[in-house]
Amino acid sequence: MDAAFFDRWSLEYDEDVIACDEANLYPFAGYRRTLETLLNEIQTKPGARVLDLGFGTARLTKKLYEIGYNISGLDFSPEMCRIAQEKMPKARLFCFDFSQGLPDVLKDKRFDIILSSYAFHHVPDSLKHERILEWYSVLNPGGMMLIGDIAFLNEHALTLCKGDVGGEWDEDEDYMVFSSLQPAIAHLSPRYEQISHCAGILTVHKV
Ligand SMILES: C[S@@+](CC[C@H](N)C(=O)[O-])C[C@H]1O[C@@H](n2cnc3c(N)ncnc32)[C@H](O)[C@@H]1O
Prior knowledge:
Blueprint: H1 3-9, H2 13-22, H3 31-42, E1 49-53, H4 61-66, E2 70-75, H5 78-87, E3 92-95, H6 104-107, E4 111-117, H7 125-137, E5 139-152, H8 155-165, E6 176-177, H9 178-185, E7 191-196, E8 199-205
Parallel strand pairs: 1-2, 1-4, 2-3, 4-5, 5-6
Antiparallel strand pairs: 5-8, 7-8
Bound molecules: S-adenosylmethionine.
S-adenosylmethionine binds at residues 6, 54-56, 59-60, 74-77, 80, 97-99, 117-119, 122.
């Protein structure tokens, strides 16, 4: 899915996603629980500097912005950027493709929270561990990386979901499979929590 796809989806995105979650359907079953869980985790670090990768309509980040968090973010859809900037006028938002790396302007910045909700599946599998290592490098000691997304503990769980949804399965997405990703980032001691049959959260703490 390219930026133009998300530009077109931006006005209906919130409604579509909530309806899918309420019906407990792939791909957004567990969406609100995932965002609530992320929010609760982040609130253990009041006023933190947050970098949100793929902020979309800023559904989650706006809540943090309103209670005093310092928000930076990347999203490659100009429409999503416009909507989010309107909701968070003082946030430092950049229209940028995060799958290839961080923009120069952020490489020397440091954050307490690296957040990504429902966007990591747009990073190709072959680049996922590289992105995690790069994002980890801009985390402050004591900081935390939280990636909530359509995700599975292992290939078996993914195959079960794929079988259940049949023709609805989106072959273009690279959903995170924790057991496949874990070896390349094992030295970061990642934790994974399954939130619904198709949603999960990867957490990495920086000591
Ligand atoms: C499904 S939406 C998730 C939005 C929001 N984080 C949420 O939880 O509702 C995915 C977002 O990631 C953005 N995105 C997808 N691929 C991207 C990429 N390669 N670089 C930057 N943004 C990307 C899209 O424009 C979209 O806003």
